[in-house]
């Protein structure tokens, strides 16, 4: 019990519940390892007793927690709840974020949103300082209902792409979808910077940095200096454009996979050439302002990029004196590599400018929400963020998922988790900076595995995922920072809340205005009949869609192709006949229900025309009260291949497939814009009526 008490004080679970009524104990070795990653010694009974005594003593003596949250409109008269236990007569002083001070008695209801400094002085002479986060009650909401498209940007090539979709394509897609189809948003995959390698990990969900975008997404021809290259530089650029066309044609016409590394080789060389073109005075001033605004975070990121060029991406092979970003050795090498550091800062600025261009195009096209950017749940352990913010990450730990009905072995995602104690002690500075960076040009932000704001499954190095445990974060503080930064950016927030969700999480997110994610095939009356959930029973505060990047396309679901694919790759855990039968039964049930609602012609469970069935699925989504409806862009052309097949690595070309038609042939952005099938599908959400409000008790399961 002593170990359990010590673990509880640090937010470490000693048991978890994978299903209602089921409790699984966490191995003591896991608890000891996780506590060790939090600098808490629990390696012996004596150490446990000493650590427990120290923790309880510190807790009793604490005047203020490291971070205090105040929600506007939530607090009763008098002191906020986090300060209710302060001794009577404690004097408070607040230094406001933008200057000025407020002292006792504090007008809590009148404090402006922001990150302030709080000081307390008790009558017994004790003093304390804390970060005070004052947040609006809710994140901004969309002005009205909206439909939009969901796409993995790299997969959408145009006639001008260099072998993968880029920010020029995003700008064109937003402009076209907003103007021609009345779309309110475009949601893309994370555009975070990747860890270079041979080959580069193509997953956008295991990045080097979540704070800075990857310059591989740049449209080279849209860099203003491109127009001014001349002589030998112009000739080399023209040759690179020709080689890029070969890459593009290989993907679009020859069945080749998207090769991020090959694309970057060409773009990097082109950008090296463009850097020789002098910036005009205005552009030079804009670059200086960008670097000043991004500060040390950008310098660290660019330094890491320069170090990778010299020593490779495996940080364990770096010289000892540059493994610490604050070491004298790193400072020396940063000076030696100043030109390369400048180059990578310049790339970050160029990418930021093209992100801004895409956001502006979306707004000018009339999109009510705009570009929806995606926040991955973590970063690569050898990447730029993990190097630059080492104190914020738990060494020797990896984020994953516990065993469940779909994966008895659990999951290890290979992403180091943030330390909750380090976040709190810093006033959540790394988290605030991350959100601010992502929200610079976002109309909305999707948060992958949003449950991670509350707790994450930590897996100690060397142990299987089944031997992990949950570590809890201060959800109130995490949400307050999120709401504050979204409020400052005027951005909607969407949480990916699929899978195992602990009780109370969805309610807490909804209270703060964070939308959820509702996928048609998962929406059933699980607490009752088990049948498809009626459209009027769906929640309103969500993005309703038919599928995601990790799930089969709608065409694959309707045809059963996804079962055959998993069978070919040896991923089925049951006999093929059983999987086919269950899948056919589920699809037939949905088709029957769609016909019952008058959304699909015909009778009974027989499979209809594929295109008609896909349109019926999106008509159904329109009937729900969901305030945002997302159309998976590959569904618009009958693509049957998933972008990512969980549980595979080399067996399947994850994150490397272009959008393709039902025949498997890739289609370009120009082809999509001219497609009658796509136009008909994307216009469905704009024409199909649906209820104005959710009925009482509406829910999502």
Automatic annotation (TrEMBL):
A GO term for molecular function: 4-alpha-glucanotransferase activity
What are the entry keywords?
Carbohydrate metabolism, Glycosyltransferase, Transferase
Q: Which reaction(s) are listed as its catalytic activity?
A: Transfers a segment of a (1->4)-alpha-D-glucan to a new position in an acceptor, which may be glucose or a (1->4)-alpha-D-glucan
- Please, which domain of life does this record's source organism belong to? Bacteria
Q: What is its EC number?
A: 2.4.1.25
The record's comment on protein family reads: Belongs to the disproportionating enzyme family.
Which NCBIfam families would you find in this protein's record?
A: malQ
Question: What is the name of this protein?
Answer: 4-alpha-glucanotransferase
State the organism named in the record. Answer: Streptomyces coeruleoprunus
Gene transcribed to yield this protein: malQ
């Amino acid at each position: 019990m002593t170990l359990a008490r010590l673990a509880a004080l640090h937010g470490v679970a000693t048991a978890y519940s994978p299903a209602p009524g089921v409790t699984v104990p966490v191995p003591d070795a896991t608890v000891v390892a996780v506590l060790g990653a939090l600098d808490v010694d629990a390696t012996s009974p004596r150490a446990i007793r000493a650590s427990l005594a120290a923790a309880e003593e510190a807790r009793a003596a604490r005047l203020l927690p490291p971070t205090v949250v105040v929600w506007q409109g939530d607090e009763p008269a008098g002191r906020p709840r986090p300060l209710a236990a302060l001794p009577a007569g404690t004097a408070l002083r607040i230094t406001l974020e933008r200057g000025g001070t407020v002292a006792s008695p504090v007008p809590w209801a009148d404090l402006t949103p922001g990150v302030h400094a709080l000081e307390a002085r008790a009558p017994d002479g004790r003093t304390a300082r804390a970060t005070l986060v004052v947040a609006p009650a809710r994140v901004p909401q969309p002005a009205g209902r909206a439909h939009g498209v969901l796409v993995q940007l790299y997969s959408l090539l145009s006639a001008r792409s260099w072998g993968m979709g880029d920010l020029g394509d995003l700008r064109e897609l937003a402009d076209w979808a907003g103007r021609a189809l009345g779309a309110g948003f475009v949601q893309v995959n994370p555009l975070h910077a990747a860890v270079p390698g041979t080959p580069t990990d193509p997953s956008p969900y295991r990045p080097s940095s979540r704070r800075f975008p990857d310059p591989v997404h740049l449209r080279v021809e849209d860099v203003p200096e491109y127009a001014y290259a001349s002589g030998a530089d112009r000739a080399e650029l023209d040759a690179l454009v020709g080689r890029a066309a070969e890459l593009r044609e290989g993907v679009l016409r020859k069945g080749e996979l998207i090769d991020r590394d090959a694309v970057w080789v060409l773009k990097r060389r082109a950008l090296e050439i463009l850097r020789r073109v002098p910036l005009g005075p205005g552009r030079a001033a804009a670059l200086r302002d960008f670097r000043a605004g991004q500060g040390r975070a950008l310098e660290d990121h660019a330094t890491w990029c320069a170090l990778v060029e010299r020593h490779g991406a495996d940080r364990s092979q770096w010289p000892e004196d540059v493994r610490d970003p604050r070491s004298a050795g790193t400072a020396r090498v940063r000076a030696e590599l100043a030109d390369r550091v400048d180059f990578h800062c310049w790339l970050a600025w160029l990418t930021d400018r093209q992100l801004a261009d895409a956001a502006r195009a979306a707004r000018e096209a009339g999109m009510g929400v705009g570009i929806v950017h995606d926040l991955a749940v973590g970063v690569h352990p050898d990447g730029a963020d993990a190097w630059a913010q080492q104190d914020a990450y738990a060494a020797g730990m990896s984020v994953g998922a516990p065993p469940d009905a779909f994966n008895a072995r659990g999951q290890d995602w290979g992403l180091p988790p943030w330390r909750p104690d380090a976040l709190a002690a810093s006033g959540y500075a790394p988290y605030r900076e991350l959100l601010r960076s992502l929200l610079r040009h976002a109309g909305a932000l999707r948060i992958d595995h949003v449950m991670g704001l509350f707790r994450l499954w930590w897996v100690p190095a060397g142990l299987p995922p089944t031997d992990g445990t949950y570590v809890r974060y201060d959800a109130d503080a995490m949400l307050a920072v999120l709401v504050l930064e979204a409020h400052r950016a005027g951005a909607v927030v969407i949480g990916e809340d699929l899978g195992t969700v602990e009780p109370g999480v969805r309610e807490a997110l909804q209270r703060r205005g964070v939308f959820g994610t509702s996928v048609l095939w998962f929406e059933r009356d699980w607490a009752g009949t088990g049948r498809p959930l009626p459209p009027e029973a769906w929640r309103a505060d969500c993005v309703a869609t038919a599928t995601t990047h990790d799930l089969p396309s709608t065409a694959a679901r309707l045809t059963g192709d996804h079962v055959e694919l998993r069978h070919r790759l040896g991923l089925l855990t049951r006999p093929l006949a059983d999987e086919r039968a269950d899948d056919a039964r589920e699809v037939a049930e949905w088709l029957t229900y769609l016909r019952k609602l008058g959304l699909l012609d015909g009778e009974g469970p027989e499979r209809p025309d594929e295109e008609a069935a896909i349109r019926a699925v999106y008509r159904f989504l329109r009937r729900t009260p969901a305030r945002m409806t997302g159309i998976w862009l590959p569904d618009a052309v009958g693509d049957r291949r998933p972008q990512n097949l969980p549980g595979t690595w080399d067996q399947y070309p994850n994150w490397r497939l272009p959008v393709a038609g039902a025949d498997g042939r890739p289609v370009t952005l120009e082809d999509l814009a001219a497609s009658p099938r796509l136009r008909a599908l994307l216009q469905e959400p704009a024409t199909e009526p649906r209820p104005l409000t959710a009925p009482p008790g509406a829910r999502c399961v």
